[in-house]
Amino acid sequence: MIGRNRWVVLLNCLLVALAGLLSARGSTTAVQRTFYVAPAGSDANPGTQSKPFATIEKARDAVREINQKMTGDIVVVLRAATYSIDRTIVFDHRDSGAAGHNVIYRSHPGETAVISGGKKITGWQPDSDGRWKARTQIDNFRQLYVNGHRAVRARGGALAGAELFGSDGYKTTNTQMADWGNPSDIEFCYYVVWCHTRCKVKSITREAGHAVVTMLQPHFTYARTKEGVRVKLPSYIENALELLDEPGEWYLDRAADTVYYIPKPGENMETARVVAPVVDKLLEVAGTLDRPVENIHFEGITFAHAGWLGPSKIGLVDLQANFVLDPEKPLKRTGTVTTVHNEVLKSPANIVCHAAKRIRFQRCTFTKLGSAGIDLEFGSRDNVISGCHFHDISGTAVQVGDVLKNDHHPDDQRMIVKNNAVVDNYIHDVCVEYNGGVGIFVGYTDGSVIGHNEICNLPYSGVSAGWGWGEEDAGGGNPRYYQPFKYDTPTPAKNNRIELNHIHHVMQQLNDGGGVYTLGNQPGSIIRGNHIHHAKGGPGGIYLDEGSGFIEVTGNVVYNVGRAMNFNNRAQNRTATCKVHDNFFDAKSGEPPKTPETAQKVIAEAGLTSDYRDLPNSNE
User: Fold this and answer.
1) I need a surface site. Which of 110, 264, 283, 353 has the fewest CB within 10 A?
2) In contact, 390 and 426? CB cutoff 8 Å
3) 61 in a structural domain
4) Measured in whole angstroms, how far is the alpha carbon of residue 51 from the centre of its chain?
5) Span 290-334, pLDDT tens digits
């Protein structure tokens, strides 16, 4: 049976690779109509090559007029430009391809179209202490990009002479903090094992030789009492003008509508291109169960400059993978606070596919984003993200599925996120603001394929698949945890494949994760042929955590990590259900194993396939 399953896996891998290859070489079907969009165009034009439209929305509306009876693909060609938007571009069921044909939005060959939710900040003037300043009408933002590089939000070290003070905050020997401006914009940040949490300051007062810092509630209490690991003293402080003291740092004084920046050597603020995000969501493919969006392709497009202001309002109390407590579903047990059935809230993405089918992102770039990169959620099926470049993203690069009730036990089977492929992507230097995120997150999904990606330079785990710590599985989870009720039926989590990825230099900041990390029962799932190495935090290799069951682990090469294979699924007696065989584990070696030859073959085959090995050399 195992042999037969392996042949099925190999066949499916070939099919996915073939689909990616065909897309990379262009559509093989006839083209019914081509529209053009260019910055010098006009939406009053007919959208031809000589008289292009000016906006993507106008091209979308033109497609709607002819896509009901398609005889071939409809192509929208975007000429090289930065298409700055001040609202989300939305595609719904009216924008779908039909009759087996696709609607394709692509950059012109040899050119790059950038969809940007950013706005330039100009008029910089010298200020004191080496700072420069500029007025801005943008009410709030959490990211600033100077000449294409993310600047550092003003930050300082740990809280001097700090100790917890009551249940609402701290006191510190740094009495000058009582005089700091805009205290409610300050954030205390914490590294706690696998979590990177941010808590907001409410106020600061002076009292008996100390500054007393009162934190915003109830989020500070959640951070101190949540299940898992909890915060104590902050690791560092962020977002105060008084912390602005290093080249490359910036601060937004919201009350004064003024942004400050200390230039790096060689930066000229009179000519610098400075951009801040003004849009939270760049692109939304928004279908419904009855009317899904289908058959739209995005090719060679760069998505950049989007934000997310949620942490500026309430902080981010990280439970795991940048998921946070839902205050509407609290559950107290064993002296801590959690959420009923682990139904926590994910960090939103800047590009979202909701009830979407056969949507493809091919050779796109996702960068300079302020939350997660892209979501495939709520009934999204048969979508492909292939040959894309993800970098400089505040949170997780790719999120497939979710962890809410209609994900683990849906009322309608059409809600299940199913048969999506994330293949041949280069994912690196993401989770740069919210370090608890991962390269690729997979929730309760059926048939997800995570294959041939290169994932590296991350603060936490490379791939995280599954959720719930076994509690939502049939019969419940760990008997030591109180559960108000249990499910008799399994979750949709099954048949997921994490295979042939090259995952390295992960776990660079946090601990208790790995190159591949799993939770919960996932029958028919496989972790196969991955090349995993150089994890700083532990265990670092392949990690089957609580509730992980019915997963096959085979043919992987893992070395230079704390522990190549780690089980923490013993409480529910599920270790025996996971078949671990024919792997090449050398946890202490700093170099790939020189023998046997089969291990070298795994190393050669894992990661980006030949058509996409140029991605690490791309400029964007």
Assistant:
1) 110
2) yes
3) yes
4) 38
5) 999 999 999 999 999 999 999 999 999 999 999 999 988 888 988
